[in-house]
């Protein structure tokens, strides 16, 4: 299950919660499921570890897809790649990161 792979930060008690859903628009209700924010006007903090790797001599490509379905005035989504030393349950906006985009 996605909730076993991903860790929601507990740094702040008012972070929004994630849910698994295909959303409002999809081709296949099961195949198109993804992690979605569930509350408006909230900050979110979710992380997952991956196995160490090296791209020495190779191009590194990091990609993600965002589907904004909410009617909000201001918002955004981005990805940060953190060092392995990150405390996932204490992750927050000032946590050290190596790459950020979105």
TrEMBL record:
GO terms for biological process: ERAD pathway; protein folding. It holds the Pfam family Calreticulin. The keyword Nucleotide-binding does not apply. GO terms for molecular function: calcium ion binding; unfolded protein binding. InterPro entries: Calret/calnex, Calret/calnex_CS, ConA-like_dom_sf. Keywords: Chaperone, Endoplasmic reticulum. GO terms for cellular component: endoplasmic reticulum membrane. The keyword Endoplasmic reticulum applies. It is found in: Endoplasmic reticulum. Belongs to the calreticulin family. This is CALR protein. It comes from Polioptila caerulea.
